Amino acid sequence: MKNFILLTLLVLSLFGDDYEFCEQPEKYDPAKGKINIEDVKNDASKKSMERWLNGNFALETYKVNYILPYGYSNKAYKPKGPLHYDNIEAELQVSLKLRVGQNLFGLHESYYVSYSHQSFWQIYIKSAPFRETNYNPEGFVIIPINDTTSMFQLRSVKLAIAHKSNGQPNTENVDVNGVPLGNLSKSINYVYTTIRAQHKTHIIDLTFLAPMGTGDNLSDNPDLMDYWGYSKIKFTYFYHEHMFTLMARGNLRTGKGAAEATYSYPLEDNTNLYVKLFSGYSESLIDYNRNLNKAAIGFSFSR
Question: What domains can be seen in the chain, in order of their start residue?
Answer without folding.
Answer: 1-56 (no CATH), 59-300 (2.40.230.10)
